[in-house]
Amino acid sequence: MTPFIAPSILAADFANIQAEVEMLNASVADYIHVDIMDGVFVPNISFGIPVMEAISKHAKKLLDVHLMIVNPDQYLEAFRKAGAEIISVHYEACTHLHRTVQAIHHLGAKAGVAINPHTPVDLLQEIIADIDLVCVMSVNPGFGGQKFIENTYSKVEKLKELILKKGSSAKIEIDGGVNLSNAPKLITAGADILVAGSFVFNSPDPIATINGLKGI
């Protein structure tokens, strides 16, 4: 299976954000992954809706927005209006997850649920048939460039089993530390979408790096 590739704009050069987005437009990337951090749910702050709107203005790829924030419900409509086509919220941040997923679908976006490295996939049993995507964090969320957590492979295998068992059409997205050495193993385990940030943007030739991931 050819994976979907979602470069994380968080690792881009923000002094040249239009050029970075246009580079992704010209690549074989499928999505642009947008990490939103509030400094509360995760120990870092990224950017908010005005920057998201600036990215959306130039993007020709689908915007895959990952909300690493508390109280995501109050911002769903704003991010949808700013161009989000996939909105992923964290299992750990949502008290009423099913209602949040319904709200995302009501806005006309695809709904994803992200899980931290310590969160078992079994906790998604009651929601997996209602969502479009599971974002498996393969590093602790909050900062780019972290080391990949090796337990992710078995976690993806368990998640794939759950998806098949429940008859879900949810895609499995891997976020954190993805590179050319672990990507083939992730695809074999059942991953559908690979998020890559610093691995893409810190490479000498980002477009060639995206091609390499896509060609796995």
From TrEMBL:
<dbReference type="InterPro" id="IPR026019">
    <property type="entry name" value="Ribul_P_3_epim"/>
</dbReference>
<comment type="similarity">
    <text>Belongs to the ribulose-phosphate 3-epimerase family.</text>
</comment>
<feature type="binding site">
    <location>
        <position position="8"/>
    </location>
    <ligand>
        <name>substrate</name>
    </ligand>
</feature>
<feature type="binding site">
    <location>
        <position position="66"/>
    </location>
    <ligand>
        <name>substrate</name>
    </ligand>
</feature>
<feature type="binding site">
    <location>
        <position position="33"/>
    </location>
    <ligand>
        <name>a divalent metal cation</name>
    </ligand>
</feature>
<dbReference type="InterPro" id="IPR011060">
    <property type="entry name" value="RibuloseP-bd_barrel"/>
</dbReference>
<keyword id="KW-0413">Isomerase</keyword>
<dbReference type="InterPro" id="IPR000056">
    <property type="entry name" value="Ribul_P_3_epim-like"/>
</dbReference>
<feature type="binding site">
    <location>
        <begin position="175"/>
        <end position="177"/>
    </location>
    <ligand>
        <name>substrate</name>
    </ligand>
</feature>
<feature type="binding site">
    <location>
        <begin position="142"/>
        <end position="145"/>
    </location>
    <ligand>
        <name>substrate</name>
    </ligand>
</feature>
<feature type="active site" description="Proton donor">
    <location>
        <position position="175"/>
    </location>
</feature>
<dbReference type="Pfam" id="PF00834">
    <property type="entry name" value="Ribul_P_3_epim"/>
</dbReference>
<feature type="active site" description="Proton acceptor">
    <location>
        <position position="35"/>
    </location>
</feature>
<comment type="pathway">
    <text>Carbohydrate degradation.</text>
</comment>
<keyword id="KW-0119">Carbohydrate metabolism</keyword>
<comment type="function">
    <text>Catalyzes the reversible epimerization of D-ribulose 5-phosphate to D-xylulose 5-phosphate.</text>
</comment>
<protein>
    <recommendedName>
        <fullName>Ribulose-phosphate 3-epimerase</fullName>
        <ecNumber>5.1.3.1</ecNumber>
    </recommendedName>
</protein>
<feature type="binding site">
    <location>
        <begin position="197"/>
        <end position="198"/>
    </location>
    <ligand>
        <name>substrate</name>
    </ligand>
</feature>
<keyword id="KW-0479">Metal-binding</keyword>
<feature type="binding site">
    <location>
        <position position="35"/>
    </location>
    <ligand>
        <name>a divalent metal cation</name>
    </ligand>
</feature>
<dbReference type="InterPro" id="IPR013785">
    <property type="entry name" value="Aldolase_TIM"/>
</dbReference>
<feature type="binding site">
    <location>
        <position position="175"/>
    </location>
    <ligand>
        <name>a divalent metal cation</name>
    </ligand>
</feature>
<feature type="binding site">
    <location>
        <position position="66"/>
    </location>
    <ligand>
        <name>a divalent metal cation</name>
    </ligand>
</feature>
